Amino acid sequence: MSNKKIDKIFILCNVLCYVTFNISHYTFFYMIKEIKFDKIPRFGKPDMIAAWPGIGYVASESIRYLMTKLKAESFAEIEPRAFFPYNYVNVKDGISLFPVLPIGRFYHSKNIIIFVAEAQPSGKEGERLAKIIIGLAKKFGVKRIYTAAAFPIPMDYREKPKVWGVVNKKKLLDCFRGYKINTLKEGSISGLNGTLMGFAKESGIDSICLLGEIPIYTANIENPKAALCILEVLTRMLNIEIDLKTIEKKSERIEKEVGKELEQLYAQMREKGRLEPEIIKEFEKIPYSARQRIEEFFKIVERDKTKAMELKRELDKWALFEEYEDRFLDLFKKRNES
Fold first, then answer.
1. 207 and 197 Cβ atoms separated by less than 8 Å
2. CB 49, CB 63: distance < 8 Å
3. 3-class SS string, 119-168
4. What is the pLDDT of residue 70?
5. pLDDT attached to residue 146
6. Which of 137, 139, 161, 132 has the alpha carbon at shortest distance from 148?
7. Whole-angstrom Cα distance, residue 168 to residue 166?
8. In which residue ranges of the chain is pLDDT below 70?
9. Nearest-angstrom CA–CA distance, 334 and 264
10. pTM of the predicted model, to two decimals?
11. Domain boundaries, the chain
12. Which of 50, 130, 134, 254 is a plausible cystine mate for 195, CB 3.0–4.6 Å?
């Protein structure tokens, strides 16, 4: 056989191998029925960041800000019907309408995959979503997954929040050195943040959850100050630079608004003969895990009103119904107004 024929056969084999690899590569993604791909980006061992709404909107605000500053491009969308089943319909002018389901999208920029969801499913749906995210991460060769959350504690709203961290492998604790990250010694990470870390560990993927401190009495309002602290740490860990001026200004504005609200509250309490320290003591009586569970219940009841009595029992258990009463009743006002 001549050298020319050997060269042609060699080239043909290479072409066939390349085509076969690419067909199998793309087929895998398009076979995931829960994800609709706009395109399939190429990465070189990327990092992944995942975020969804939670207490103080710390995770969603910090990661959406990062995504905007990086000008990240969307490449895939989660099919919401797979994780948020219809449990009710809205009624308008006598006509029933299915509610708009929350979506989650994947973005990419600078060899970073960013997943941002409008809500996080719970139970089996949450577990299934975590597995799908991990499956996609494995296929793209993701080396580490970052998530973020709020850490409500008794603190002065004017204090600079500290950042705490949790890892899914002991060796990753060394990553906290030099970033002023405090190690969370014990406790629990609930929701998708915890589920994702667990499945990442089973799949051999490193995972870090960063938690930004917020005053426990501001758990129901956005906290850009904590989001800013998360971003300061996360951008250094990812070795990227972004402009933080916009979120810094927002943090200052929200802090002033919180100060005004507290002054009004203190004035009302003084009129009733109660001292300001007593207010803080009331918040300290409720453990962080209880507040987390209540937030999870509110998300569940937003989707399934039949679970309302379970939420009511949980609030009564901690003698918190009066504090959450307006928010509890709003769940049903929204439905009636629809």
1. yes
2. yes
3. CCCCHHHHHHHHHHHHHHHHHCCCCEEEEEEEEEECCCCCCCCCEEEEEC
4. 96
5. 97
6. 161
7. 7
8. 1-32, 266, 268-289, 334-338
9. 28
10. 0.73
11. 1-31, 32-250, 257-337
12. 130
Residue 74: phi and psi, rounded to 5, are -75, 140
Residue 108 per-residue DSSP state: E
Task: In the chain, count H helices and then E strands.
Answer: 10, 11
Burial class (CB in 10 A: 0-12, 13-18, 19+), 117: buried
Q: Which amino acid is it at 171?
A: K
32-250 CATH, one of 3.10.20.880, 1.20.1540.10, 3.50.50.60, 3.40.50.10900: 3.40.50.10900
pLDDT at site 21:
40
| Lookup result for tokens 């309302």 | 308
How far is residue 158's CA from residue 178's CA, in Å, rounded to a whole number?
A: 24
Residue-wise DSSP of 5-56: HHHHHHHHHHHHHHHHHHHHHHHHHHT-TTEEES-----SS-EEEEE---GG
Report strand pairing: 163-167 vs 206-215.
Answer: antiparallel
Closest CA to 159 of 258, 77, 93, 60: 258
Listed residue (224, 216, 230, 220) closest to 155, CA to CA: 216
Residue 167, φ and ψ in degrees, nearest 5: -125, 165
Judged by DSSP in three states, 105 sits in strand
Q: Which residues contact 42 (CB under 8 A, 6 or more apart)?
A: none
- Would you give the distance in Å from CA 95 to the centre of its chain? 34
How many CA atoms does the CB half-sphere of 313 hold within 13 Å?
Answer: 4
3-state secondary structure of 96: strand
